[in-house]
What does this fold into?
Amino acid sequence: MVRLTRAEAQERNRAKVLAAARQEFAERGFRDAKIDGIAERADLTRGAVYSNFPGKRALYFAVLADLAERAPVTARVEPARSVREALAAVARVWATRLPLMGDDDHAPSRLGTGLLPEILADEATWKPFAQLMRLNAILLGLAVERLRAPGEPDGRQVRLAEAVLTVLQGAGQLAGAAPGFVEPFDLIRVCEQLAGLDLGDRWTVAPMLPQVREGAGAWSPPGRAVDAVSGGPARLERDGVVAVLGLHRLSAAEEAVRAAPPGAEVTAVVVTSAPGELLPLARLVLAEVVTCLRQAFPRAAWPRLRVVFDESGALAAAAGVAAPRDMTEVAIRVESGRIALRAEGFGACHAAASARH
It folds into this structure.
């Protein structure tokens, strides 16, 4: 019998806990699910469950995030060629996840019906959720901007993306509370029609003065990082901007994208003071939109913003952030393997991206 290493045993137990929790939540719902029941299903102790997850809510977020990230890809004959086609495709993918009238109360499609009430019940979760939704709107808006045809009006499209996500999120909540009320074909057509909406969206830079220091030393990002947007590797050693952002500062990533020179790599490294609970929530919320974006937009239109979840804090430490917090905003400018500039505080993303050396 092959003896597992400590890391392999931990990974195996974590997978067993996730599988057992999914069964418990599906059968009993979030409110009635018990940690003891999950431990019994996983054939582990209660302590083994808590050694992998800080609590039931964190486990619920992790189960839903795992499902969202592994959602099956809906094949498309060809990528969308216009904003209208792309928004219709986003709504089409979203509609495939909605609970249906005939679904059993314990069907997988209804597993997440308790998510929003649980998020809104605690300031510790609804504040990050608000910023995560803003990050989703930024990603979708940037993709829309890259898909516009030559000659079409220029301008920011993040507010349009916010309107689309408002419709989709509302449809998801209604489908869960009133099965059969949401007509998927109407939902798709509404989002398609939003493509022509002019919200007068313009980008402005707030007058903020972060602390800026040049020549901060060598840049040695640890390990292999995964870009949550593309699903591929995030090549953090390349020249560009790396922004370490707490969950309350995620919208600052747009400042780095807007200010960076054409072709520059821009990466948002997401950190929090409670990674065991809040990073699974971040993975879940981002996956809901990213899976739609990958299928609806051609790869050339994907936003030039990478997102990396820094659960261990190692990436933050490499950028000089020893104790990540939810209000952290630190950005570095990487050039030829060195940190050419480091900015800290509100406005750091803009300062690091707009610097010229």
Remarks:
- The radius of gyration is 21 Å.
- The chain has a mean pLDDT of 89.
- DSSP finds 13 helices and six strands in the chain.
- The longest strand covers residues 211-218.
